[in-house]
Every structure is written in structure tokens, then in C-alpha cells.
Fold this sequence. Notes:
There is one protein chain. This protein is of the alpha/beta class. 43% of the residues lie in helices and 15% in strands. It has 9 helices and 8 strands. The protein has a 5-stranded parallel sheet, sandwiched between helices. α4 (86-102) runs antiparallel to α9 (253-274) and α5 packs parallel to α9. The longest helix is centred in the middle third of the chain and has 22 residues, at 110-131.
Amino acid sequence: MAEMPVTVELASDFMDREPPIFRNDTVVFISQSGETADSLIALQYCKQYRALCVGITNTVGSAIARATDCGIHLNCGPEIGVASTKAYTSQIIALVLLALQLGENSNHLTARREEIMTGLRLLPLNVKKALELDATVRSVAQTLHKHSSLLIMGRGYQYATCLEAALKIKEICYVHCEGVMSGELKHGPLALIDDSLPIIFIATRDKFFSKVSDGFRQVLARKGQPIVICSEGESEELIPKGFLRIEVPTTVDCLQGVINIIPLQLLSYHLAVLRGCNVDKPRNLAKSVTVTEN
């Protein structure tokens, strides 16, 4: 939207490399708690070089909210459980709003802006529809809860959804789960595919759909049995009869991840319950990571 170059960094890796920062740079710090130790160290590093520091956090008065030059409060309410759910979706919306604001003077992107704003207005209705899939997701969880490994595949915007879903399943279900870029199938992951490995394939309609379909067919050719997250009314041409599917509402591509992650968050919850895990307080984890390695 803003046609500006952006790089995405993990705060811990960022400080390991100590990359050059300049005073005309803008650095955005995203933290649910606003107290994440790695992010705070990176924030102080960037302030040394007079970069503009922007915070996106859900906690008013947190360390990141106080130390940054400006920012966005998510205001989505407190999260009690360790695994983040609504803060994640709110972060996506905050970043989309920020992009819209930065790109407001780009006249040739007016149609794209209006498409996104329409998607934002319809988002509450689509989220409600996604939450109504709970019974379907619970039945999917019944088929998966005894497995010890799981792959989640997607492409484009949905790769981030794969990573977030895999993180949730690891956090609260104690199941090995990996988010895979479907375009990378032939570079290693395809060797894992057989009829016994559970696979979730995100194949909602967007500009990458034809490429996602190619990856899906590669999985089917290796006797994979994918569970498909697809758009409402998806034809049997893509998903043959007999395969489990979760149909979600369709929205603009940059907001589709907000919808797609909901059934996957519900899936992680139901898997954890079926496996007898503590959903709110998973072992070895804390809500805020306030210490870092020396």
C-alpha cells in the first residue's frame, strides 16, 4: 500500500547481527505484552541511532509503549492464557491500518484501498461465521489428536497463518508441528508425504490459488490425505470427495489470514483438550518473556 521497502526481523536475531540503523529509518516493535526482553534491547539499540521507533502493543503503560516515540494500542482486552489468540489477529489489523494510512496519497492504489476498507467493515461478520465452525473443527480434532506430528501448508499471506497455527499447536498441544511454504514442497518436505502423515492445507481463493492448487495435487499424488481449509462453496474439482474440508468466509487477501487462523486456533484448543493438556498454562512457557540469553 505504501510502496516502501520493509524487512521483518526477530528481535533476538536482530541483536545478534547488530545491523546498521540510520536516523531516517522507522522501526516498528510488535509485542503483545510490551515487556519482551529481546524487543526492549533492540529498541534501545535503535534509539541510539535516532531511528523513529513505533510500538504496537496490547498493554497500555508497558515498557515498549513508554519507550517508543509513538505507536498503536491494540485495545483488544487482556489475554489470560499464555498462547496469544486475539492479540495476533489484532496485530494484523493494526498493521493493515498502518499501511492504509501510509499509502493514503497513492492515487493509483485507490481501488485497492477501498477493497481493503470494505473487507475491514465486513470483518466482524466474517469472524462470527468462522467461529460458528467450532463443531466442524472439533470433529477434525478427533481424527488428529493421537498423532505426534503435523504439517500445515500454505502460500503468500497464508504462510504466516501456517507459522502461527504451528506455533499454537506446539505451545498447547505438545505436538510437533511445522508450517511449510507450499512452493518449497520439492525442496525437502515432499519426502515426508505419505498416507499416514496428517497435513492441513490452506487453499483459500487469492492470487496464489493456482500455485497452491499445484502443491495440493503434488500432495495427493504422493497419497497424502490433506485436511483442507478452503473458501465457502469450493468445488470438488480441487478437493475430491472423501477429504475433510473446513470452509471459511472469503475476504480481501491481506485480511484472509484473520479468518483462516480462527479454525486453526480452535483446532489447537480442541487438540489440547483431547490430549489432556492445560490449555491456559502450557508447560515451560510464560506469558511475557522478560529475560534473555547472555
